[in-house]
Write a structure and sequence with these properties.
By secondary structure, this protein is mainly beta. The chain contains 3 helices and 12 strands; from the N terminus they run ββαβββαβαββββββ.
Length: 169
């Protein structure tokens, strides 16, 4: 499953929640009647959105069965997920974050840099969080630096500018 949002907090006193988006397609994903999944207490549960409105660019949603502010507050921090098959196809050369996490990162001469632990930022300003041991290095997700991105092979080849890999040592 892919993360499409994270519940930030309760909103109002009728059980609504504010969602921090993890998708570039909020109007497609966040609609009344949409089914999403949450993991709570080791169990995966289906949740249905009963109403959706946007406030300052973030969805404010009501979930079936969540009636009070206290009910909504227990959901803070949970991820809203959908099956990967339901994701919108992306244009060539663009990737979902989950496609990149776990990829091996190496330099053009084959030197191992680390493994992608996460992606920070948004389209146009994204950074790969590349970890090796307990050190993370931020690598701009730019065509001039990331010369090969092959999610199928779980591999990213970078041509880092001088000093980039030394910043977090």
């Amino acid at each position: 499953m892919a993360v499409v949002g994270r519940i930030a907090r309760a909103h109002g006193n009728r059980g609504q929640v504010i969602v921090n988006l993890e998708t570039d397609f909020p109007d497609v994903r966040f609609q009344p009647g949409a089914e999403m999944f949450i993991r709570r207490g080791g169990m995966v549960a289906s949740v249905r959105l009963t109403s959706v409105r946007f406030q300052r660019g973030r969805p404010v949603v009501a979930l079936d069965g969540v009636e009070t502010m206290n009910d909504a507050a227990t959901l803070a921090g949970l991820e809203l997920r959908v099956p990967i098959e339901q994701l919108v196809p992306l244009p060539a050369g663009t990737f979902y974050q989950h496609d990149l996490v776990g990829c091996r990162v190496e330099t053009m001469d084959g030197r191992f840099v680390g493994t992608v632990r996460g992606v920070e930022g948004s389209a146009g300003t994204s950074l790969l969080v590349v970890g090796r041991g307990d050190v993370d290095t931020l690598v701009p997700l730019a065509a001039a630096i990331c010369t090969l991105i092959d999610p199928a092979e779980r591999r990213i080849v970078i041509d880092p500018p001088h000093g980039l890999l030394d910043l977090n040592r």
